[in-house]
Amino acid sequence: xxxxxxxxxxxxxxxxxxxxxxxxxxxxxxxxxxxxxxxxxxxxxxxxxxxxxxxxxxxxxxxxxxxxxxxxxxxxxxxxxxxxxxxxxxxxxxxxxxxxxxxxxxxxxxxxxxxxxxxxxxxxxxxxxxxxxxxxxxxxxxxxxxxxxxxxxxxxxxxxxxxxxxxxxxxxxxxxxxxxxxxxxxxxxxxxxxxxxxxxxxxxxxxxxxxxxxxxxxxxxxxxxxxxxxxxxxxxxxxxxxxxxxxxxxxxxxxxxxxxxxxxxxxxxxxxxxxxxxxxxxxxxxxxxxxxxxxxxxxxxxxxxxxxxxxxxxxxxxxxxxxxxxxxxxxxxxxxxxxxxxxxxxxxxxxxxxxxxxxxxxxxxxxxxxxxxxxxxxxxxxxxxxxxxxxxxxxxxxxxxxxxxxxxxxxxxxxxxxxxxxxxxxxxxxxxxxxxxxxxxxxxxxxxxxxxxxxxxxxxxxxxxxxxxxxxxxxxxxxxxxxxxxxxxxxxxxxxxxxxxxxxxxxxxxxxxxxxxxxxxxxxxxxxxxxxxxxxxxxxxxxxxxxxxxxxxxxxxxxxxxxxxxxxxxxxxxxxxxxxxxxxxxxxxxxxxxxxx
Length: 597
What we know:
Layout: H1 6-24, E1 31-35, H2 40-47, H3 49-55, H4 61-81, E2 88-93, E3 96-97, E4 112-118, E5 124-131, H5 151-166, E6 174-183, E7 188-196, E8 202-203, E9 207-208, H6 219-226, H7 236-248, E10 252-259, E11 268-269, E12 271-277, E13 281-290, E14 294-303, E15 312-322, E16 330-340, E17 347-359, E18 364-377, E19 382-397, E20 400-416, E21 427-439, E22 446-459, E23 463-475, E24 517-528, E25 533-545, E26 554-565, E27 572-579, E28 588-593
Parallel strand pairs: 1-4, 5-7, 8-11, 9-12
Antiparallel strand pairs: 2-3, 2-4, 6-7, 10-12, 13-14, 13-28, 14-15, 15-16, 16-17, 17-18, 18-19, 19-20, 20-21, 21-22, 22-23, 23-24, 24-25, 25-26, 26-27, 27-28
Helix pairs in contact: 2-4, 3-4
């Protein structure tokens, strides 16, 4: 063994200490300065590759030099986009022009990178012409003599010209010539575009892509769902609709409809449908709890392609009122079968059956409902429903034990342009349903009408105000002759938080019933806090009357505060509410997923 040299050990330890100091020393901060008028300076910083590199924490001199040199092109792109064609641009690295720095031999360190821009005057159009265009077509807004010129509006004008021809069936329209001349002395741009419309085309029969031949959905059903209108004049919206219809079924993980590059025989345009099947089966569970209504558990099982035609077979189960103050425990079982593309690509046929027991504070109702209906998706915002069903019910309430037999004929319209269904910040939602019920074997007839109207508006980046109005009315049958679960109550998580579940009706216990007219008003102020947390303040009011005309009823109200925690499936909701009318002083807790409305 060699003798140990203490001096060598000390030198080695000192060297390790120096290395450790260098390794743990914080990276030098690099500053990016942008010198230009606002708001141009903000646009330049957003486009800067140097800013991107710094945001990623990279301060390596070689990378910074390369990014700074690339910023010349990015800065010019921003300037040309906004019509500055005679600007003076400098990108400097510690005072030295970046273009003169050798990226292979960068400086040892970089402290300041500066983007300095003198934009000069903006250019305007001396001439703006695009031809030919379809009759009554107006060029893109801003593409006109005297307007501000820029590469952005030039690009938009050319694209809009081509799209205008595509909208009227000329699928292969294209820009075949362009002449753009900048006069730096006059600060003007003369722009001329020539378009070749090509022939007007009709759709050929859609093909299934070879890679989609193994789809479990039959080819003829894929074509029917896509709804490409064979023989009709080409419309690009039909391509987009076809993709939306295929995705909407849930049977496909992806769906793409492509136009052929070449024109087919007889001035036709071929299309190819490529789909990838989603996993056929899915299940889910959910839970919601409140101190008044107790625990509610839900579950479902779904088959997305039950019979090879993208039919959705779904089973639902629910148990509610566990540990609550809402009577007893409620049970529900349901099954539905939905067939898409029923006589129209945007219509679907729905068979359904439901067996339910509702053990409510003022009645116990068991019923079986079997029906069939059609849903028509008019647009991405508007949906119409029509259905007929047979309903057999048995109820126990203040009027004794009764049986009801009804034929139900329902019609509904749903409007939804919210930006999100689980956490909306803007838009409106409206659902209106008219339900005539025709009695036989001694049951009375009548009409039940309900409406649910909601609106949302952002107040800045952090605040949202939300409002809801609910209305309902039963005409044609008396309270005693109407199924008790068709009548209206107020109170609880779905109407007035802070008031007891179905605490407002007509009359008093033990003779209390629901009313024949109903209204509820709710408003919330929602605030985003730090991170994923949010807060809510709310006020709810409800009204129930014995008459169908809203006369002679009573109001009650509740208010409270809540917290929200945002997740990928919607915010987790927890609300505390107290009554603001009546003599009660209880506090109710409501927990669930998604906003209250």
